[in-house]
Amino acid sequence: MHDGTLRAEPDKLKEECGVFGIYAPGHKVAQITHYALYALQHRGQESAGIAVSNGKKVEMEKGMGLVSEVFDNINIRRLKGHIATGHVRYSTMGSSSLLNAQPLLIRYRKGNLAIGHNGNLVNGRDIRSQLEQAGSIFQTTTDSEIVAHLIARLKDTSFEDSVKEALSFLRGAFTFIIMTEGKLIGIRDPLGIRPLSLGELDGNYCLSSETCAFDTIGADFVRDIEPGEMVIIDENGLRSEKYVSPGKLALCIFEFIYFARPDSNLHGINVHLARRELGKQLAKEYPVEADLVTGVPDSSISAASGVAEGMGLPYEMGLVKNRYIGRTFIQPSQKVRSLGVKLKLNAVKQVIKGKRIVLVDDSIVRGTTSKQIVGMLKKAGAKEVHVRISSPPVTFSCYYGIDTSSTRELLGAQKKVEEIREFIKADTLSYLSIEGMLSSIGLSPDSFCRACFDGKYIVEPDSKMKKNIFEKINR
User: Fold this and answer.
1) CA 70/CA 63 separation, integer angstroms
2) Given the DSSP bridges, would you call strands 292-295 and 356-361 parallel, antiparallel or unpaired?
3) What pLDDT digit, counting tens, does each position of 254-276 carry?
4) Alpha-carbon distance 79 to 81, whole Å?
5) Is 17 an annotated catalytic residue?
6) pLDDT value at position 341?
7) Annotated catalytic residue: which of 17, 206, 252, 398?
8) How far apart are CA 225 and CA 221, in angstroms?
9) Cβ distance 104 to 144 under 8 Å?
10) Domains, the chain, ranges and CATH?
11) Quick one: which of 219, 331, 383, 468 could link to 214 by a disulfide (CB 3.0–4.6 Å)?
């Protein structure tokens, strides 16, 4: 239900979630996790949580809002132990509520279990239905609780064996960080759709959705967790095993286009440099006579620098971002909905006036924001506005943990490029080709999931999910 607020970025794909975990005796793991979550804040702004174990019990603090809103010195100091896991969330399955905030803390016959999850299970509804028929009672609407119930119901003597058996039921995209009183476990789905990396801090191990968190806490990157891999960290150190025969890597390509922070590295590729190459390829495919290039802050700046280099044009800061408006603001009436972009962005008139502008953005979802930005630049005196998008048109819904709209709300699915150009009132509009995108990043072209562009789903969603999951009302 609409709550009378307008999200700060209503026309962007939402950033899934971010997970972090650390096993570090003698260190203040809650504080370390707190800092790591700041580094992962871009992956989810609805809720944040930290769970800590001292070897005997697990304590947790979580709440709705940004990391800075949920935690303070008092509740962080209250979390004492040597193992921690943290989570920042944007809801794609399950509503935005405190009940669904993670990590989920489950107390069952074998002890305590804290779970943080990034991704989406395409068969989650079916598994939940079967568990409910078998007597399980669910407190949340998240996929993460499904996994907790599976682990709790299995009779294996070894906890790791229970986890592996539970994983055998799952289909979809996921990274999990699971913590017990004495163990920290990191898991990546068989196709590696969602990222997870291993780091080392003073001889201790940590796990993170992105390597930028390691930089923040002073840890060293060790390696990416491989598709189908489970790592166990406990008093005996680190050990790894494949819980399933892995498939070929199919990393979500939007990690490079938009989601990941520019200073993160994924499978040896720096995100900023990959985005710059996307821009250079875009300039090669669609050159245009213009005076300068500017990008939509912040995620498009790297691609815009590549476009400028490729076109031999200067890059200018034509748009300035206001970073202090918070996650949402009051929306008193439909009439002022357009204030969303105006509060976040402002054109630098002295840079824009009388110039032919190449405006670079990473994607167009519904097109409303693009239309307002083009209008803002023209009102500031731009002679021409040529929009260049550093990815192909988004034409299909994602079922793997990204909150794309239903296809009826995706501009790329409903209109041809020329019709989109007319809608956003740009002088020209061009998207990067799928081939150009795949050749620019530096990994093998078949190393990515790109279903949102071509509809080739690497894990087919069940019929209920396909029918209902993104047909949302009152967005």
Assistant:
1) 5
2) parallel
3) 999 999 999 999 999 999 999 99
4) 7
5) yes
6) 77
7) 17
8) 11
9) yes
10) 5-247 (3.60.20.10), 272-441 (3.40.50.2020)
11) 219
d(CA 266, CA 263) in angstroms, rounded, equals 10
- Tens digit of each residue's pLDDT (9 = 90 or more) over 391-403: 999 998 888 877 6
Separation in Å, CA 212 to CA 37, 130, 327, 373: 10, 39, 22, 30
Tokens of 378: 């023209």
Alpha carbon 295 to chain centroid distance?
A: 21
Whether the CA torsion 78, 81, 82, 85 is positive or negative: it is negative
User: Rounded to whole angstroms, how far apart are CA atoms 64 and 48?
Assistant: 7
CB 93 within 8 A of CB 120: yes
Q: Give the pTM.
A: 0.90
Tokens, residue 229: 């891999």
Round to whole Å and give the CA distance between 219 and 204.
Answer: 9
Among 247, 191, 195, 180, CA closest to 225: 195
Which tokens hold the place of 49?
A: 């949580």
Taken as a whole, the chain contains a residue count of 475
- pLDDT exceeds 70 at position 127: yes
Residue pair 402/92 in contact by the 8 Å Cβ criterion: yes
Please say whether the beta carbons of 46 and 96 come within 8 A: yes
Place of tokens 């213009």: 290
One-letter amino acid for residue 149 of the chain: H
